[in-house]
Specification:
Blueprint: E1 3-5, E2 42-43, E3 48-49, E4 52-53, E5 64-65, E6 67-73, E7 86-93, E8 99-105, E9 108-113, E10 121-127, E11 134-139, E12 142-147, E13 153-157, E14 168-174, E15 184-188, E16 193-197, E17 204-208, E18 217-222, E19 226-234, E20 244-252, E21 257-265, E22 273-278, E23 286-291, E24 297-302, E25 313-318, E26 326-332, E27 341-345, E28 348-352, E29 358-362, E30 370-375, E31 389-393, E32 401-405, E33 409-415, E34 421-431, E35 436-445, E36 457-463, E37 473-476, E38 478-479, E39 486-490, E40 498-506, E41 512-514, E42 527-530, E43 533-540, E44 549-550, E45 562-565, E46 585-588, E47 605-610, E48 623-636, E49 644-649, E50 657-662, E51 670-675, E52 687-694, E53 699-714, H1 733-741, H2 765-772
Length: 781
């Protein structure tokens, strides 16, 4: 039987009781309920402060940056029964262009027209089984709603929304396989398959929507593990072309045991198989994941790893090889709030982080999300509790963004001051010391922005040893042989030079964009490299024992003693060594495959690992110590209480100086580099010491060391041979090319200008003449 509601008609008889039935009686979400906000919402036209939308919630304004509040509908304004609270949200755009927000609540589902984001209109609110968890997705003009309170699939017909008097019809419910409870619903719109995830201890239950959208047809299931949430996509190119792939948050015991990230091939619904699974370090509860548009990265939120001591963290995975996934970053914000749901759109990551509200990250560098906007929906707090923003939907063509708030209701936003263009370095090849460095660039616009191809520019400058920086030189990118790809090159530079560069592009209207670089880019726009020849005098990848010492007289650890092995990974210990093609590394205690994370961790004291004797005087110049380190102390009964000091000695271990005290490497290998002279006088009696310990209340401590090297950065001796512009020791036509590539650089009287062989400060045709007159001259050695 169908029910059809008018634009604002709400039948109160549709609702179940407003008292919430908890699907999991011990779920932490049940502990932090404070009830819905009962005050008024806000519509555009109310007070604005500094150009940002500010409304009131308990008398507090909403802090925001680059996010404008367009409107806000509270739970009562969504026509839900008293006591209802918010849950998930999704969106749909009708054939006629209406943008519809779908807001789920503990008792009901509301459909809101947000085509005019300043004046949202509630089209209808429909009841269903009462549950804290209610989720919705759309296929064509049908909306499917699930809950953990049972009821299976609740189906709505949205085809009447474009009518002069908008209508929505409830078509009934389908509950035919297993329990009627479902945690979430996932739809692959390309394939036309719907996936019910979770609910009790379910994995995936799969339905075809193309056969009968009003009565989805069950076609298969996968029940090897619990699946909390997933994204399912169809691959159209590469080795998995023609395959349907599910990216899943999985585990046992409702997802809380061996929680992890899993990739399944679901092409054959009766022969689903795993491509890879990673029980990632420091995992507590794998909650939700979304992948980048180019299918190279995945962004996962663990709902329980924020424990009040750790910052809000989004885990970044490399999924470019679906059979070999790895953690590449853990992106954080300055908040202890719990991360919940995030979605990728227009090379931005939109995250709903409970008490921290909406957080928007720039994915120009997709492995290194950089926060560029936020809207704090819970200004009275920032704790690791389950309050405020549950989810976000950013896919409306207008750029409108919506968010669902547990206590607050539906928020409607737009972004401002977001860089309109994204510049991708598609390839980076060559050597600035030998022939120059070339880049292949791709530029795309966000939210419909256009690119002026002639504006794409590589900007670089050079600073000689002991000199002052030159002016930036702009090199216009030129079309390559590949459509849509642009080429630009920094010419060869002399050894010892520091080269800085960045990329710019503009819209036809002149709005400029620069490529953000993230953590390694200093001010966020600048790449930098100082050109040296690296001479490695010692390299140890742990494949053989080069003279390491395990143990010290003061050691007391009873388990987790250092050992050189191919590691068996756990939540706290690495699965692999730090670099291919080697396999071994030093770790604190090898556990058996599949064992719990605390089986052989460090217990009851200290275990010490000391390097062989190293020579930091083998070459002229300053020696650099490089090593890869792993350290985990965030799990167990007393997380984050211990640490691992790394120390250095220049007298064969008689005295020690601390290099760094490691407290965490965020569940991944981290490469550390230390200029030895910054800590001790370089000698040929250098040793490095690692002290992993469990000194306090029984936390789980795991550490690893790999890839230790001693390197010297050197340049050939500078000799008096001014016509040798490129510094290769002889004056050839290559020096002419170098001068030509730098024509116009410098200014009269400047020093160190690239290509200025006659010493007047400016690179001109006079320098070409000088080189030509000295062709063949062998420089003194």
């Amino acid at each position: 039987m169908s029910r059809v509601l008018g634009a604002v008609m709400v039948g109160i008889g549709l609702f179940a009781s407003a008292s919430v039935a908890w699907a999991h009686s011990d779920d932490p979400k049940a502990l932090h309920r404070i009830g819905p906000y009962e005050g008024d919402g806000w519509k555009r036209g109310a007070a604005l402060v500094n150009g940002l939308g500010v409304a009131q919630r308990g008398g507090l304004g909403f802090p925001a940056q680059n996010v404008v509040l367009r409107s806000w509908l509270t739970i009562p304004e969504l026509n839900a029964p008293a006591g209802s609270e918010g849950a998930d949200c999704w969106g749909w755009t009708s054939p006629g262009g209406k943008e519809i927000a779908i807001m789920t609540m503990t008792t009901s589902t509301a459909f809101v027209d947000v085509t005019d984001p300043d004046n949202p209109v509630v089209l209808g609110t429909f009841g269903g089984p009462t549950s804290l968890w209610r989720d919705a997705k759309v296929f064509q003009d049908r909306c499917y709603v699930v809950t953990e309170g049972g009821g299976g699939l609740q189906v709505f017909d949205l085809s009447g929304i474009d009518d002069p008097t908008p209508t929505i019809a409830e078509l009934g419910s389908l509950s035919d396989v297993g329990t009627g409870a479902t945690h979430n619903v996932v739809i692959n719109e390309d394939s036309g398959y719907l996936y019910r995830t979770g609910g009790a201890d379910n994995g995936l239950r799969i339905y075809s929507l193309t056969q009968n959208p009003d009565g989805p047809v069950f076609v298969g299931q996968w029940q090897d593990r619990y699946v909390h949430d997933a994204q399912v996509v169809s691959y159209t190119e590469g080795p998995f072309a023609g395959r349907e792939i599910a990216f899943c948050c999985t585990g046992f015991n409702g997802g809380s045991v061996e929680t992890g990230f899993e990739i399944l091939d679901v092409t054959d619904k009766n022969n689903i198989f795993q491509l890879d699974r990673l029980v990632y370090p420091q995992g507590a509860y794998s909650h939700q994941v979304w992948i980048s548009a180019d299918k190279r990265f995945a962004y996962l939120n663990d709902e329980l790893d924020e424990n009040g001591l750790t910052e809000s963290t989004t885990i970044v995975f490399d999924i470019s090889d679906l059979t070999d996934i790895s953690v590449v970053n853990r992106a954080t914000i300055n908040s202890n709030a719990i991360t919940h749901n995030n979605y990728v759109h227009e090379r931005l990551l939109f995250a709903a982080n409970y008490q921290a509200g909406l957080r928007v990250f720039d994915l120009a560098d997709q492995a290194n999300p950089v926060e560029v906007a936020f809207f704090d929906t819970f200004p009275s707090g920032d704790a690791a509790t389950f309050n405020s923003l549950w989810s976000v939907y950013p896919y409306f063509g207008s750029g409108t963004v919506i968010g669902s708030d547990i206590e607050g209701g539906l928020f409607v936003w737009s972004l401002e001051n977001i860089t309109p263009l994204v510049i991708d370095v598609l390839a980076d090849s060559g050597d600035l010391l030998d022939g120059g460095r070339s880049f292949e660039l791709g530029v795309s616009g966000r939210f419909g922005a256009e690119v002026d191809p002639s504006s794409v520019t590589l900007n670089f400058r050079s600073t000689p040893v002991g000199g002052t920086p030159g002016a930036f030189t702009g090199v216009a990118a030129s079309p390559s042989a590949v459509a849509g790809v642009l080429d630009a090159t920094i010419p060869q530079q002399p050894c010892g030079t520091t080269v800085e560069w960045f990329f710019t592009a503009a819209t036809p209207g002149g709005e400029l964009a620069e490529l953000p670089v993230g953590a390694d880019g200093g001010n966020g726009t600048l790449f930098s490299e100082t050109l040296f020849i690296t001479d490695t005098t010692f390299a140890d990848d742990a494949e053989s024992d080069t003279g390491w010492i395990v143990g010290a007289p003061s050691d007391t650890a009873t388990t987790g003693v250092w050992v050189r092995v191919d590691p068996n990974g756990t939540n706290a210990q690495p699965e692999d060594d730090a670099s291919d093609p080697s396999t071994r590394c030093w770790i604190t205690g090898q556990g058996t495959p599949g064992a719990s994370q605390g089986e052989n961790d460090v217990d009851d004291g200290v275990t010490t690992l000391t390097s062989p004797q190293l020579d930091a005087t083998a070459r002229d110049g300053d020696a650099t110590l490089s090593l890869a380190v792993w350290y985990s102390n965030s799990t167990g009964n007393a997380p984050n209480e211990d640490s691992m000091p790394i120390s250095i000695s220049n007298d064969n271990g008689n005295t020690w100086t601390t290099l760094e005290v490691i407290t965490s490497t965020n569940g991944m290998w981290e490469t550390k580099r230390y200029a030895i002279a910054d800590f001790v006088t370089p000698t040929d009696e250098i040793r490095v010491r690692f002290e992993a310990s469990d000194l306090f209340n029984g936390s789980i401590v795991e550490a690893g060391v790999d890839d230790l090297t001693i390197e010297f950065e050197t340049c050939p001796a500078i000799v008096d041979c001014p016509s040798d512009a490129n510094g290769d020791g002889v004056t050839t036509t290559g020096d002419i090319t170098f001068v030509v590539s730098n024509l116009g650089a410098g200014s009269p009287g400047a020093s160190g200008t690239p290509g200025d062989v006659n010493g007047d400060g400016v690179t001109t045709t006079g320098d070409i003449t000088f080189v030509v007159s000295n062709l063949g001259t062998q420089c003194p050695s």
